[in-house]
Each structure stands twice: as C-alpha cells, then as structure tokens.
Amino acid sequence: MEFLDPALGPIWKKVKAGERLGFDDGVTLLRSPDLSGVGRMADHVRRKRHGNIAYYVYNQHVNYTNVCSNRCTFCAFATDEGCRDAYTWSIDEVKERLKERGDEPVREIHMVGGLNESLGFDYFTGLLKAIAEVRPGATIKAFTAVEIDYLSKLSGLSLSETVLALKKAGLAMMPGGGAEVMSQRVHGALFPKKIGKERWLEVMETVHQAGIPSNATLLYGHIETLEERVAHLLTLRDLQDKTGGFSAFIPLAFHSKNTELSHLPPTGGVDDLKTIAAARLILDNFDHIKAYWVMIGEKMAQVALSFGADDLDGTIIEERITHTAGATSKKGLTRGEMVRLVTSAGFEPVERDSFYNHVG
Question: Which of 128, 164, 198, 223 has the fewest CB atoms within 10 Å around its CB?
Fold first, then answer.
C-alpha cells in the first residue's frame, strides 16, 4: 500500500502484522494529512472483521427527563426544574410513547436522561419493568455510567447492588456515554460535576462483571487535544482487555449550538473520518465501530463505512439530545431508509439486535 504520508508506512507494517498500535501511532494517524491512507488501513481492518456487511438496528430512543443537576458546559439538552422547556415523563407517559409505535418491530429501547433529583429509585426500576411489559421482545439499553453512579447514591446501595437491582428490573445493556473525554483538564473545564475517569471506569467494570455489556464513546471536537483523544482510546482498550464487556465504540461529534461553547465551529468531515478510522485501528479488541449518523449526518456516515465503521446505529425514531444542540440530520429514519443508506454506499445491510445477532 502506497502512502502520501511516509509516517504511515511503519503503522501499516504493524497493522499487517497484527501488532498493537501505541500512543505515538494514534497521534500520527490523527495528525496525518493523508486521509486516504489512514482510511485505507482502517478499511483493511474493517473488511477482515466484517467483510462487506454494515449493521443497523431497529431502535427507539427514550429521554425520560431533561432536568439535570450537573448542567455540563457542553450540553444543550439539560435544564433546571421549573424552566419553560423542562419535562419529566411519568412511567405511564413513557408506556404510551412506546405503545404509539406498537406496530413497529422495535428491537431495542435506548434510554438516557438527566439527573433529576425529584425522582426516586423506584421510578427507575419501575420504568424498566414498564418498558419490559410493553416491549417484551426488545432489549432495554439504558443509563450512562453517570446515571448508574447517581442511582447508586440515590438508592443507598453499593454500586454492584444497584447494577443487580437494575438488571433484575430489566436492564440488559448500557450505552457508552458520560466519560466524554477522559482528561482531567477537560473534565475540570467542561463537566466538573460529572463523575471523573476513575469512577466511570469503575462503573463500567462493575456493569461488565454483572454480565451487562455496554458501548463506549468519545465526545470529540471541542477543547480536547488530539493527544487526549488517543489517551482516551487507549484507556478504553485497557479496560476492554480486562473485561471484554464493550460491544461497540461510538465517536460522538460535538455540536455546540445552544451551549456555552457555541463559539466553537462544528467538526469537519476530515476530522470525523480520521477519528473513526483511528478508532478502528487502535481499538483492536473492539468488534464494532459505529458511524453515528445523527451527529455526522447521513452522507458522512455512509462514507465512514469505508473508513473503518461497520455499523450505522439505528432508526432512532425520535432523537432529542443532539438536535437541541443544532443537529441538522433527521430525528429518525425508517428501516427502508437505513437499508438505502447502506446499499447506496456499496455495502450489504444486515439488521441486527442489540448483541449483533442477525435478525429479519
């Protein structure tokens, strides 16, 4: 393989030999002007694992409240109790929203929300049980590590006891948010009230030990450095070595509209693609890399399938969090639209469940 950037040559030798990439390799990938070269290496790894398949899931998002005590600088979704746009859905309201889509073959309920101090622990276990009642055939993927930490304090139970109580109520999988970028500098500047790196890792390890798989994410394109991105990826890789509990990695492109960081420009296509490709090359122990169409747009997500991504996530139905920060993508897609995105990008669409079993 020929490269415009000679610095990629040694990395390609490691990739071909199946050798693990290091910190300097990751920084080189993200700094390289040779987007095509980085992408071709990532595509090589992606095709060795998944061939020409690209996955999607028929899922529905549920954001049960936007009231949150953390109020992170980068967040446009959260608000305070009593504000005009504040909302909290009752368990019955969540059930009704699910029943509105009762005739659709939803296989996954993706549920996250703010840290609403007016809600008791029983609300959350009741919410899980209600979703399982309305959607008995769907996997409940709910609560970030930040929410799990909060629920442990709310319940008065240990972290492991809290996870087991939620599992008993119906929790089967977790999304990967909450860590954002595992950098003490960024944490102090953007989300000081949120749990830090060590607690996030502890929560995820506990969840994995309980037999609950999760995703992992990186929020990029704000004030983090490229070196901090790579360090974040390596930290995830280390925990995956230990637990094997991460199902997929999802790079999340930052959207600044309606946040305190609204002066920051959006991420560009080159940065989006290099971040996805670098993740595929560095995270050798992760089976799946997602191109989250909500954040990077449908067309860029299609391109990302040739830059290391093998999954477009899902139908979503009604995305709220990123759209409050100015996302211009659709709030949801149909199954037919998901299939067209994959096929028109030159890949074979495969509908999956939450655990990457082929369905349909």
Answer: 198
